[in-house]
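Pipeline run #58 for the internal structure catalog. This entry was flagged by the ingest filter as a single-chain record with no existing model, so it goes straight to prediction. Upstream metadata was stripped on purpose; only the residue string is passed forward. Reviewer on rotation: M.T. Logging verbosity set to normal.
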Amino acid sequence: MSTPALSGGTSFFTGFTRLCKGLAVVLVCGHIVVQIFPSAVTYLALIPARTIPFGWNLITAGYVEQSVYGVVISTVGLLFLGKLLEPIWGSKEFLKFIFIVNFLTSVCVFITAISFYYITRQENYLYMPISGFHGVLSGFLVGVKQIVPDQELTLLRVKVKWLPSLTLLLSIAISFFVEDSGKYLPTLIFGTYVSWIYLRYWQTKQEMKLRGDPNDEFAFSTFFPEFLRPVIDPIASIFDRMLCGRSEAAYEAEGQTLGGAPLPGSDPIEASRRRERGARALEERLAAERLAAVGRTDAELKKDAAENV
């Protein structure tokens, strides 16, 4: 299966959704505000020591980019990844995903910073301004992994399902050579994990009455190489019981049956079919965009020919 938006094509730079454009404007405006009024970082970015009483920074921090390269990466990532995900999820679900992942990621970063302060007694963990959309971007990569895991990126020769893992691995490697890695690394890690939890257990599909994605191809161990999965699976099942209130065994015993009937969304085959339908819908939409682009090109050529005559 080949997805034009991932492998390249005439529609690659077109078809951005209205919601993504609006959110891109928010990111750009947020960056401009903190450049014109540097003191605004104190109120908008996540500064753990000031989150109480400035609790709103758990929400606003995700939409404020403090650097030029940060706002460029976030805006481009939002437009292109949103172009893939929003048509399949729907605008409401897409916006809901962004809000939940951003908020819960900020909460996790806040708790981590406070914990590191009490462990190390270093005040920089309390007063380091943390902000940026990269937590949600890492969540988008998890969403793409869920929808088209076996799609191969032409330029990188890498399957889409490895993008979240490679992004984290590269970020961790870079953190050894740059200062203030705490400003971005925890956000990327928690953004990836929170988005996986949301898509795995919480996301609802009203039209199909499905909740979550129990498919084995989207298990937590799929973020790791094959040889590590026998080690990861038992550990993941422990955290599954602790954090999510269910294990794979409990899911099979309780989640898939209720009075002898399967629960909606508990069948891995149905989850696989849902993924295939999403990928098919995505391809059909992008194919229509390509045809429209070709039609516009032909019309322009005919118009030029008529003018030359």
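catalog note: The beta strands are 152-153, 158-159, 204-205, 210-211, 257-258, 261-262.
catalog note: The radius of gyration is 22 Å.
status: ready for reviewer M.T.
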